[in-house]
Amino acid sequence: MKVLSLLNVFLLFVCHFSFANNIIVNGTRFIYAENDKEITVQLNNTANRPAVAQVWLDEGDPKALPETIKTPFQITPPISKISASGGQTIRIKLVDRTLLSTDKETLYWLNLLDIPPITKSEKNAEQNMLQLAIRSRFKFMYRPKNLGSRELAPEQLQIFAGKQNIQVKNPTPFFITITAINDEKTTLNTEAFMLAPGESQTIKINGVVNPGDNIIINNINDYGAEVPAKIKVK
User: Fold this and answer.
1) PANTHER family recorded for this chain (predicted)?
2) For the chain: N or C, fewer Cβ within 10 A?
3) What is the pLDDT of residue 7?
4) Would you say 89 and 42 are in contact if contact means Cβ atoms under 8 Å apart?
5) 177 falls in which pLDDT band (50, 70, 90)?
């Protein structure tokens, strides 16, 4: 099968619309541990018609074409036709460890392009057609062994008080996504952001915090759930 363009929208004239948003993925993020031989991603087609799915990894550039991207992972199959109400298991295998850090996580993005097929009736129809494909991206992290506890990592974040802002530093080897920041009485920030290992960011807040204050950060764990962590401001 010919590799499809990474474009989210491709045109077959104008008028009739067909949308692809029926493929469900069994996760919101995927962790590839160093000891894993491979991991699987399950795709399920909830529609009453077949669908075509293209899956690939990128290093963070959403505009990069799949055929130009080189990662140390092999995806099988990269393109598949999924029958109506059917499923497809995607296997992802590490084939080259030399490109990966051994002392911190490496972040990739897993892409899914959900493409609606053209039925015979649509092919035979005299009307023109606009066909829309839906693209989704999921975090895909390679995690070396011996990094310590990911569950406890958010509690190790360092927060420094500023004027109408705080500085948040991530001294851990893990990527940490924060969805909200609160003190014991009010919501300080609800704009989600991600901290890479060793990264610091200055975040505007709705209020003032002082050294010694306790604040609560909501962060996303390995299972996609939002969990709180209490941190004392420095």
Assistant:
1) FIMBRIAL CHAPERONE YEHC-RELATED, PILUS ASSEMBLY CHAPERONE
2) N
3) 42
4) yes
5) very high
pLDDT digits (tens, 9 = 90+) for 189-207: 999 999 999 999 999 999 8
Handedness of CA 4, 10, 16, 22 (dihedral sign): positive
Is residue 126 located within the same domain as residue 86?
yes
Please name which of 169, 120, 114, 167 lies closest in space to residue 136, comparing C-alpha atoms. Answer: 114
Q: How many angstroms separate the CA atoms of 178 and 175, rounded?
A: 10
**For residue 128, what pLDDT is reported?**
58
Same domain, 124 and 28: yes
pLDDT band at 130 (very low <50, low <70, confident <90, very high): low
**DSSP codes of every residue in 104-146:** S-EEEEEEEEEEPPPPHHHHH-SS-EEEE-EEEEEEEEEE-SS
What is the domain range of residue 100?
Answer: 9-143
Residue type at 6 in one-letter notation: L
CA distances from 206 to 12, 20, 93, 170 (A): 48, 40, 44, 22
DSSP assignment letter at 165 = E
* 148 is a domain residue: no
Place of tokens 């109400």: 85
**Confidence band, pLDDT 50/70/90 cuts, at residue 115:** confident
Rounded to two decimals, what is the model's pTM?
0.85
Which of 220, 224, 143, 212 is closest to 183 using CA atoms?
A: 212
